[in-house]
TrEMBL record:
Biased composition (Basic and acidic residues): 20-31
Keywords annotated in UniProt: Lipoprotein
Domain Sulfatase-modifying factor enzyme-like, chain residue ranges per copy: 42-445
Record's protein name: Gliding motility lipoprotein GldK
Gene3D superfamilies: paralog of FGE (formylglycine-generating enzyme)
Keyword Lipoprotein set for record: yes
Domain of life: Bacteria
Region (Disordered): 11-31
Amino acid sequence: MLAASFVVSCSRGKTSSGKPDSRGELVPKESKSSFVAQRPYGMVAIPGGSFVMGLADVDFSGTPEKAPLKTVTVSSFFMDETEVTNSEYRLFVNYVRDSIARTLLAEAAGDAASEEGIGRYAYLAKKAGENTTAYQKFLESQGDRGGYTDAKKLDWKTPLYWKTSQYPDEKYAEVLESMYIAPDRRINNERLLDNGKLMYSYQWEDIASAVKDKNRGVQYLKKESIAVYPDTTVWVKDFNYAYNEPLFDRYFWHKAYKDYPVVGVTWDQARAFCDYKTKAKRDYVKSGKKRGESPMKFRLPTEAEWEYAARGGMENATYPWGGPYLTDDRGCYLANFKPKRGNYIEDEKKGTYPYTAPVKTFHKNGFGLYNMAGNVSEWTESPYSNSTYQFSSTLNPYLSNQAYREPRKTVRGGSWKDVGYVLMTGYRDWERKDSARSYIGFRTIQDVPAGSARLRRSSK
């Protein structure tokens, strides 16, 4: 006997009959129009293609095993046109701060939902009352199952008050004060948030291990809880014999540095930011404010994707602008790096960037990407190994089974403290994933479905 099962699509809001539709034939009901990938805000489209990966020029370091030449192909993707800035990363930090505060307030409010005091911050399910849905009642009956459910949705419409003069009641004050550094630990009695409590929790699936074991299940879910505040002490730790205290005090939060690349972020923190960025977009789509399918996730670029994007569409480009020189025809430097021994300033007339520079200070490359060389080095998703190029695939090369376990991660691009050679598109370097540096930042990418008819240039 031959058993055949037919799966047919159903319209939104209706149940499926489980039977073939038009005259007994299988006719998909999806729209016949082609899918067009929408470019996210602040990103540029990188069309897929092939290129020669590795150092195209002489490897002056005498270690060719770090970057041998190899032809590879990468698929299309969207990429941030700049490094993630301090202002963008602060949105992440503030979201974590507010979500923790709202959760603490909701737990303290309990069932006492009201229009006044701390009761205003109760979970939405508590506020629903008689309007509670059947699904919410079911979740309530199951109790706390150790994960997030609709029964614990926060009310983000109710404003938070951080000024002590605006606290609505004593219970509210007690909850919010628990997020600040205890009085006996304060310096000069300065009331500051305890940044060590700003933890972002999320989970992801170890697909490589699941496929290897020919199995799927919760045992392959990796739960992460990451402290998201950047390490501002890197400006002092990285340079013990330099006066960098002003950057330690102000670089991350002062508005003067809002358009500068965020630094002091570990590889794990960069990945947590990608998850938050994905969550923010998916929550927006689910809210119904903009119709559409769930967006592709944001992530760090692989080493091959990063190098392909850095070349800007040029074959064997020594630098993102082509090369082989570090200056243009007027003698102006084309990136933020250390041009001479002891001289960290590229423009002697302006002399304004001895450290990092605003993310759009220098010219963009052929793909429209800024600072793919210099300013700050950038984390990639890929693990680092001298023999990576030898055994990785020639199609979208990536070592997925080692990416999470390998403590050494590849960083690319060179930084403000490096000499010109490190800025070459094929140059490789690494750092431990739990390390934060004053010269390492990151940018994110988003996959583009292979079936896209074309890449939409605007997100509007």
